[in-house]
Amino acid sequence: MSEVRVNEVGDMVLTGAEAMRVLAEPVRLAITDRLTRHGVATTGELAEAVGISDEDAATHAERLAEVGLVRRDGDSWEACGRGIFFEIPEDGDVEVQQAARALSSAMLLSYEHLPRQWVEGTEAELELDWARSAGLFNAGMWLTAEELRKVQEDLEVLLMPYLQRKEPTPDARRVRMLAYFLPPKASD
Fold this sequence. Notes:
The protein is mainly alpha-helical.
């Protein structure tokens, strides 16, 4: 049974603990990332992309399908949406809160290599205008938890026209944008 719905920007919205737990497993997260970023893939292509056997890739894809994150498309697999959206709920089921925190942590760790990979494999070959528009936003500021959530929501609204774009405009490239929101412990 599917625990996932798709929102207006095409993201799969996770609200149930089971879907979050299933996706928090690093191989399944990598499979889902491959499908959301590059589209339909065979089991063999998924296995190659994440470095596992075809049999293991099929098992992981089937588990993702059980919770509604991917679906079989003939001999291939496809994601049920263009991205992932979930929140750690403020109140309610502790199991969902724990699953959302586990997924958040898994996602943060699964993308930690991307800046290094980009610097080592892409940056030096970029045209000047693209190199000048790339970079890092690194700012420290005093915010309440509510204000930090507002900043995240405002960024989503700001990016909405680009997230909803179905076809690229001339000279557009698919840009990966990573934003980390890392508050310290209360004692820091």
